[in-house]
């Protein structure tokens, strides 16, 4: 395990999962074409939401916990939530967000940890934002602010 520093962020612990990724079957989940979806409403009002630590909202199965365990000088640890660096983390996260926003396809577009919300009229936009925010709140996800 190493700590990776990024500007304006706390150091992030990272595990080298290359050996596990080499034997993992890759899963694919289609990412939406955000520009194409937004172009369908050229005069729309827009808002984007950035989800915070989305992978950490996804629990691992007991088998996945065993496979992603790591050793430090303090002991052996098993992640309980999806860590960064796993080959299929983006797939699982994109799938979760798409399921979260089912029935919101007409006014929202998820793209990894970002969600674009668009509407033709401001009162409609407020309703759409409220719907998406309620779904995020009910899912226990959080938003970067």
Describe this structure in words.
The protein has five helices and eight strands; from the N terminus they run E-E-H-H-E-H-E-E-H-E-E-H-E. It is of the alpha+beta class. The longest helix is centred in the C-terminal third of the chain and has 17 residues, at 122-138. The chain is elongated and about 55 Å long. It comes from Araneus ventricosus. It holds the Pfam family RVT_1. This is Transposon Ty3-G Gag-Pol polyprotein.
Query: Which structural class should the secondary elements be placed in?
Result: alpha+beta
Tell me the strand percentage band.
15-25%
Tally of DSSP β-strands: 8
Tell me the Rg in angstroms.
18 Å
Mean pLDDT over the full residue set? 88
- Helical content (DSSP H or I, runs of 4+): 25-40%
Poorly predicted spans = none
- Spatial separation of the terminal alpha carbons: 29 Å
**C-alpha geometry:** elongated
Biggest sheet character: 4 strands, antiparallel
Strand order of the largest sheet: 6-7-3-8
Summed up, the helix count is 5
Order of helices and strands: EEHHEHEEHEEHE
Pfam families: RVT_1
Organism: Araneus ventricosus
Protein name: Transposon Ty3-G Gag-Pol polyprotein
Domain Reverse transcriptase: 1-145
List the helices and strands and how they pair.
Elements: E1 2-4, E2 12-14, H1 18-22, H2 34-39, E3 45-52, H3 62-67, E4 70-72, E5 75-77, H4 89-100, E6 108-111, E7 114-119, H5 122-138, E8 142-143
Antiparallel strand pairs: 1-2, 3-7, 3-8, 4-5, 6-7
Name the descriptors.
145 residues, alpha+beta, four-stranded antiparallel beta sheet, 5 helices, 8 strands, elongated
